[in-house]
Amino acid sequence: MAWDFSTEPEFEAQLEWMRGFVRDEIMPLETLDLDRDTFGRITAPLKEQVKERGLWAAHLPPELGGGGFGQVRLGLMHEILGQCRFAPGVFGNQAPDSGNAELLAIGGSPEQKERWMHPLLRGELRSCFSMTEPGAGADPTLLSTRAVRDGDDYVINGHKWFSSNASNADFLIVMAVTDPDVSAYQGSSMFIVPVETPGVQIVRDIPVMDHPTVTGKLYGGHAEVLYTDVRVPVENLVGNPGDGFRLAQQRLGPGRIHHAMRWLGQSKRAFDMLCERAVSRYTHGSVLADKQMVQDWVASSAAEMQAARLLTLHAAWTMDQVGASNARVEIAMIKYWGARVLHDVIDRAVQVHGSLGFSGDLPLEEMYRAARAARIYDGPDEVHKASVARRILRGYQPVDTPTEHVPTRAEAARRKFADYLEAATADL
């Protein structure tokens, strides 16, 4: 089947508008020290412009308020939005809200969509995805948080951390074990938990490399959360009991595509800074652009970014053709490859700027800290690599003699062409 990543001219015009809008209207906000209210007042008219262009919450189908663009076009959009960490929020598809809206679109009841998803899409509510635990990060089959049915309620008890945006959220989507006696993949469920529910304790925002201060300020932190006898009605169960892993995978698959394309936007921004510095900085008798080592950085970065872009677009195209569940290898590959490219390109840009790149006078140091997280969240690189290797190796069978063993192949070839070989010998 031929691959086709092309889009129609009308959408290309939308992408061109987005490039200018992000560059001219959103990126300048990075340089200002804004509180949440001021940031909201500045970005409110920007969000209205996005809505007027039909680009708001584009990750969902039209009947749910989105654009129904498909993963390829969404990927191309996120490549632009990834240049600035504020841009996704202005376009109504910031994490974790975009993923939670997709989860509710897939598994939510009509009542849940009306009460939680639609306000989330309109930007009236914020949300949190609360799955990771101190003892269950890369292996969610080890979840210990429990949700026990008690009449018309579920009672949740557990300890979560790195629950992104919990301290700013209006509600949390909590993954908990509802049936410990079956396979871990069938025993977990998702619940909508309003943050003000008795027993929900937002302990703290955990300081991380991305923002080492106590709070996540404008874009949310990574909270430690305790759930102690948290009682929610049965109506807050998303989907059916045991749907937790299925919903999590359907939520995380498209998210990884969007992350990888955002990383490309960040990579391109760092690459532009690298190249600008290379042609500008004079040292040891010539500009840096004339140094072979710097030329290697430029050439390697360009090739790695192009490879990441093609891998990601191919994964997005595959999802559009056959769905996320049939594109697991492609999705996993772009996650660990894209994370590596993001880190390496920013690292080279820092290096070529020397002490200036290490300072806060350029955005590179903040980009570098944020990039390091890419190899951990949405599953560490090592887990995705192991998954890809296992799936690939399923297509191979053990043999006693290597298939390409030359003496064995030669003997088979002599039998196959025996008549020709005999005739040739006779002619001698």
Compose a concise summary of this entry.
It contains 14 helices and 10 strands. By secondary structure, it is of the alpha+beta class.
Task: Explain what you see.
With 428 residues, the chain is an alpha+beta fold. It has three domains: 9-121, Acyl-CoA dehydrogenase/oxidase, N-terminal domain (Butyryl-Coa Dehydrogenase, subunit A, domain 1, Orthogonal Bundle); 127-238, Butyryl-CoA Dehydrogenase, subunit A, domain 2; 245-393, Butyryl-CoA Dehydrogenase, subunit A, domain 3 (Up-down Bundle), CATH 1.20.140.10. The chain has helices at 9-26, 36-52, 70-81, 87-90, 97-107, 110-121, 244-280, 292-322, 328-353, 355-358, 364-372, 381-393, 406-416, 418-427; strands at residues 127-130, 146-150, 153-164, 171-177, 188-194, 200-205, 222-233, 237-238, 282-283, 286-287. The strands form three sheets. It has a four-stranded mixed beta sheet, with helices on one face. Helix 1 (9-26) runs parallel beside helix 3 (70-81), helix 5 (97-107) packs antiparallel against helix 7 and helix 7 (244-280) packs antiparallel against helix 8 (292-322). The chain is globular. The model has no long low-confidence stretch (mean pLDDT 91).
Per-chain topology:
Layout: H1 9-26, H2 36-52, H3 70-81, H4 87-90, H5 97-107, H6 110-121, E1 127-130, E2 146-150, E3 153-164, E4 171-177, E5 188-194, E6 200-205, E7 222-233, E8 237-238, H7 244-280, E9 282-283, E10 286-287, H8 292-322, H9 328-353, H10 355-358, H11 364-372, H12 381-393, H13 406-416, H14 418-427
Parallel strand pairs: 1-4
Antiparallel strand pairs: 2-3, 3-7, 4-5, 5-8, 6-7, 9-10
Helix pairs in contact: 1-3, 3-7, 3-8, 5-6, 5-7, 7-8, 7-9, 8-9, 9-11, 9-12
